[in-house]
Amino acid sequence: MTDRLVTHATFTLERLYPAPRAAVFAAWAAPEAKARWFAGPDAEHALDFRVGGREVNRGRSDTGAALTFESWYRDIVQDERIVYTSTLSENGTLATVSLTTVQFHPEDGGTRLLLTEQGTFLDGHEQPSWREQGTGTWLDALAAEVLRSTAQR
Question: What local confidence, expressed as pLDDT, does residue 149 receive?
């Protein structure tokens, strides 16, 4: 019999972006922009950004495992907050279930983003520290997307 393990973890990440809230929020809401910073180069990404909408990101890990990250948008307040629930599966096996809140605050002519994730990590398939590190990497990629989009204006 396989040992079953449940680990609960919460983390909060902050980033300051030198762009207005509307620009940072738009990088989450626009499918093409979100795919550029969130999905890997060979990933399959679909985004239905609305309350009740779903986002799916399918790709492969460094070891070749099939990863599917699915989110369902529960609350969206334009330019202020996004709340979503997510699952991560590896080769069809559920690894995590999480609740994430993203808040956008005006600060110093830019935007302070505050992301809080509460996760349930199942059977050792993913570690909380891996998720926190990966989410931080996404937020850094978001910075590049925001700079790219504001430079085009």
Answer: 78
User: Distances from the Cα of 117 to the Cαs of 8, 28, 100, 114, in angstroms?
Assistant: 11, 16, 4, 10
Do residues 11 and 117 make contact, with C-beta atoms less than 8 angstroms apart?
yes
Q: Where are the alpha helices (DSSP H) in 5-127?
A: 21-29, 31-38
Domain residue limits, the chain:
7-151
The CATH architecture assigned to 7-151 reads 2-Layer Sandwich (3.30)
Confidence (pLDDT) at 78: 98
**pTM of the predicted model as reported, rounded to 2 decimal places:** 0.92
Go through 83-110 and write b for each residue having 16 or more CB atoms within 10 A of its CB, e for each that does not.
bbebbbbbeeeebbebebbbbbeeeeeb
